[in-house]
Every structure is written in C-alpha cells, then in structure tokens.
Design goal:
Blueprint (H helix, E strand, L loop, with lengths): L4 H14 L3 H4 L11 H9 L8 E6 L4 H13 L6 E4 L11 E5 L2 E3 L3 H10 L7 H15 L4 E5 L16 E4 L7 H4 L3 H8 L9 E3 L7 H11 L3 E3 L9 H4 L10 H15 L5 H5 L1 H5 L6 E5 L2 E5 L4 H13 L4 E5 L7 H4 L8 E4 L10 H11 L4 E4 L3 H11 L5 E5 L2 H12 L3
Parallel strand pairs: 1-5, 1-6, 2-5, 6-7, 7-8, 10-14, 11-12, 11-14, 12-13
Antiparallel strand pairs: 2-3, 3-4, 9-10
Helix pairs in contact: 4-11
Length: about 425
C-alpha cells in the first residue's frame, strides 16, 4: 500500500482496533500482556536495537515521566549527546511516546517512519505497548542516539521495557496504584518496581522509607547493585533557587528534581541549570501542573491516583483562591480513596471524557454525592462543556483546575490549543 496521510490514519485506526492500548481500554487481555517472552522475540526480529545505545531505565508510581524528561533534557545539554526519550501515555499524538532530544529541542518520528516500521515488521499477536516499545527502540537506533531514557509502562518486573540492560536504574515515588496487578501494599508494589534492577547496574531510588527500603536493599544485594537513596545524597545544585524557575511545576517536582540530579551525578555528569529549568520546553512534556490560561488561571495535571491527587489538592487549597475543579475519572479508579482528599470549598464540574473507560458524569455525581454530601457539585456532559462552564463561572482572579484523568487533560490541552 502506498503511503499518504489517509493511509497513515487508517494504519493507526487498525492498530488501535486490533491491539488496543491500556490507555484506551484498561488492562484487558488484548491490551496488557505481562511477561517478556513476546517482547524479547520481537526485539530479536528487530535486531535488538537497544544494544546499539546506552540506556537509563525509569520506574515508579508517580513522577517517572517528569524524572525521565529532566534526565533527557540534562543529558541532551552535554554536547554532542543525542538522547532518546520513551514515555507514556501520549496526550494528543501517538508519536509523543518517542522523541529524540538534542540541545536544540525535541522531535518525534515522522508519520512516514511509523508507516515504514509497520509495513516492514509483523506485529500480529503483540500488545499495543509491545509494538510501541519495539518501534521506539528501532527508531532510536535508526536515529543513532547515544543514550535513551526509557520509562516503564506498568510496574517493572514484567513490563515490556524490561528487556534492556541499562547503565542506570531509577525508581521514583512508590504509591498505591494498579493494585489488582501490582500488589495491595507499597512493599508489594516495590517488588515489581525493583524488578528492573540488573546485575551490577547502579540503582537510584528517590526516597528511603521503612516500608519499601528493605525490598530495594534485598533486591540490590541479591544482584550486586550499588544502591543509592537519593534523599540521603546532597544535591549538586541549589534546588531551592532552581525550582521556582522550572517550567515543570507541581507538588511532586521537588522530589523529582532531586532524584534526577542524583541520577545524573551517579552517571558521572554535571547538570546544566538551564536544561533543568527548560525541561518541558526541550522535551515537549505536557500536562504536569501546566498552566493553560492566565486569566483566569487554568491548571491541568495528569495525576490521577490518591498519592498524586493528595499533593495536588493540598497545593490548590493552599493557593487561597476561589477554586473551580473540572473533574473526570475512569470507572476503575479508587473514588472512595480520592473523595476524602477533595477540597471542601471548591466548586466541582463533573465531566465524562470521550473514552469507554470513563465513569459517566451522572454516575460520578451520584457517587460523590454519597461519599462527600457537602461538596458543591455540578455536571457537564463532556470536557469541553465543563471547561466552558468553568470559564463562565470564574472571575479573573479565580483558579480552575482540570484533572482526574489523562483523558480529561488531553481534551483540555486540545481545547485551549485551539483557542490560540
């Protein structure tokens, strides 16, 4: 078949239909396939492209996308390093998952390169994430990257990315999320995250705490891994001065920044302050406490589990402004664990993002009315409708927060991008 824009769009539609992503359908059997056999076989067909460049492997519950992007931005400032960056999920374009970062900025594969890959290689029987991981590693090798920062999709031990042997493993925060698949305690989840450790490869863990530290120590000792807890290490820069100037903002970024800096130090590199401050711009990272509008101020964030939302809601409450929250959630999320964290004095506009996984706005209204009867709740059928309602209610000094789900944030970014 000849390549053109129409055939490319048809290819993507076929991929999402035959091998739907976890992002779209959740952890259904055809979307999530734990284990490495299929990925190893696919990598072998591709010529094991990851062996042609150095790797850094990043896992964790929250913050791994930010830490991976900070590392990529800082590494790309080291001339003449070309850096691959593999993250998930994507927000507005499938190709966002894989980028090459240089000192001049970032770029995704072209649509033609994606097309050529799927014409050349048989991906039947693979999950969406296995396909995407293979595509990213293949493209990085084609682009002759020097090093790639690879973020896990889920967990670590059985994640498709765990076929690589990296120069460094990094674990960000550990919290309760995807418990049905990863475990019901933070220690059980840490076992899955520590599954990325490789024999003799240094590992940086964001924080040492009584519940998870024994897990990481035991795994590191068994594999002979030098283990560094980032929160026990001094920073190579004045982080308090850097944080306010960063284009990645949010409650988690203090720990994320420190973790990334200690990881870079472990690799033997000195940080470039400007590269840290311009991480989002240089890597194209969006949806992390991102300001979409200034008057009224509109902030979006992809944090969706209780640990992330607790930090976000606390920061919103501390800002002391009249607060409107446009909120939507997936049907499988822990609303009972989230509801107690929601600020009591905000006005909530409950929405249904455009995905079959979403909890319908009327069902969300009913559940929240029961869980938190004192909350001020309103409904809107879609994210765009909810944003329009929020903007109509807000004064210039008010604050609008949009979140609860990656899908909600994606639609919000599209909404405001289209206004420009």
């Amino acid at each position: 078949m000849k390549y053109d824009e129409k055939s490319y769009e048809a290819l993507l539609e076929k991929i999402f239909l035959i091998s739907p992503s976890v992002q779209n359908v959740g952890f259904a059997p055809d979307a999530y396939k734990p284990g490495l056999e299929g990925m190893r076989a696919f990598s072998a067909k591709l010529g094991d492209p990851w062996k042609r460049f150095r790797c850094i492997h990043v896992a964790g519950t929250n913050g791994k996308g930010s830490v991976a992007s900070m590392l990529a931005s800082m590494l790309a400032s080291i001339i003449p390093l070309r850096v691959g960056l593999y993250t998930s999920p994507h927000l507005t374009d499938f190709r966002e998952r894989m980028k090459v970062i240089t000192g001049r900025g970032w770029r995704m594969p072209t649509k033609r390169q994606v097309w050529d890959f799927f014409q050349k290689y048989d991906t039947s029987g693979l999950s969406f994430f296995e396909m995407t991981t293979g595509l990213a590693l293949w493209w990085f090798a084609k682009q002759k990257v020097d090093i790639a920062v690879i973020e896990t999709g889920l967990g670590g031990l059985l994640d498709s990315t765990n076929i690589i042997t990296p120069d460094l493993c990094v674990i960000t925060s550990i919290g309760l999320d995807h418990c049905a698949l990863l475990g019901n305690t933070r220690a059980e989840i840490a076992v899955q995250k520590a599954g990325i450790f490789k024999r003799g490869v240094p590992a940086v863990v964001a924080a040492e705490d009584p519940e998870t530290a024994p897990v990481f120590r035991a795994r590191a000792e068994a594999l002979g891994c030098p283990l560094i807890f980032a929160d026990s290490e001094p920073s190579p820069v004045d982080e308090a001065a850097v944080l306010p100037r960063m284009d990645l903002q949010g409650p988690c970024q203090r720990q994320n920044l420190h973790t990334a800096l200690i990881a870079l130090k472990t690799l033997g590199y000195a940080p470039d302050i400007r590269a840290i401050e311009k991480t989002a711009k240089r890597t194209g990272l969006r949806g992390r406490w991102e300001t979409l509008c200034k008057k009224p101020r509109v902030i979006c964030d992809i944090g969706h589990n209780p640990p992330a939302l607790q930090l976000n809601f606390s920061r919103l409450a501390a800002m002391g402004r009249n607060l409107i929250i446009v909120y939507g959630i997936m049907a499988d999320k822990d609303l009972a664990g989230i509801a107690p964290l929601m600020p009591a004095d905000a006005t909530y506009i409950l929405v249904s993002p455009d995905t079959p996984r979403a909890l319908p706005h009327h069902a969300l209204f009913e559940k929240l009315s029961h869980l938190r009867p004192g909350l001020s709740l309103r409904e809107a059928p879609g994210v765009a409708d909810g944003i329009a309602l929020a903007l109509s209610l807000a004064g210039p000094q008010d604050l609008i927060y949009i979140g609860g789900s990656t899908f909600v944030v994606t639609e919000a970014i599209t909404y405001f991008d289209n206004l420009q």
